[in-house]
Amino acid sequence: MHPAIERIWKLVPKPVQDSIAAAVDKANGVVPPPPPHPDLTRPHRVLIGPVNYAGQGYRWSRAIEESGSASARNFVHAENNVLQYPADYVVPWRTSEHSRAWQRAMVETIAEEYTHVLVEACVPVLGGMFSGDLPRQVALMQRNGARVGIIGHGTDVRLPSTHLQSTPWSHFVDSDEWVAAEKVEAVVAENLRVIRELGLPTFVSTAGLLIDLPDAHFLGVVIEPEKWVNEAPVLERDRLKVIHAPTNPHVKGTPLIVPAAQRLHDEGLIEFVQLERTPNEEMPAVLASADVVLDQFRVGDYGVAACETMAAGRLVLAHVTDQVRVEVERHASMPLPVVEATPDDIEAVLRDIVARREHYRAIAASGPTFVRRLHDGAFSREVLLKHFLAV
Question: In terms of CATH architecture, what is 34-222+378-389?
Answer without folding.
Answer: 3-Layer(aba) Sandwich (3.40)
